[in-house]
Amino acid sequence: MAELHGRVRERLRGQLVEAGTDAFADPTVFADVEGVMRAAVSTPEHARLILPELLGEPDTWRLTTKMAYRSHRASSAASVILFVKRRVLMPLVRWLYEYSRDNFERQRRTNHVLFACVQELALETALLRREVRRLSASVPRSTSSPVSAGPASGTDKLSDSAQSR
Hints:
The protein has 8 helices and no strands.
């Protein structure tokens, strides 16, 4: 099963590279991005997110498919008209209202932006983590702090470690 997952990941990575995301040519970058994405997917629904706050009012970006039936008429006439609307007209045109193109286009745009943002941020995070690991591996570790040993002593230790490489 792990072999199958590996092949699928490798095929996806190849497709992303062919589509123009050259940063994914490195399998370790792809693995880092995949790890970040898996962590993002496992975020619970009740967690606070920044992007909904940036998008503005939920009415402008949330999918709404339920129609509200109202009438300004007297209660007896209103009940007959509402019955006809609910039981006769709406079954005929339900798909037009509940699955309106406007709501789905808005949702598609929001999803596209979110996926692009998440992918770009995951890529940047993975690249930055690699750079931090690379830099932290190249910094020499000493038992005494350069500040406590004095400036001359700390400089000598850094130059000695640079020469030993």
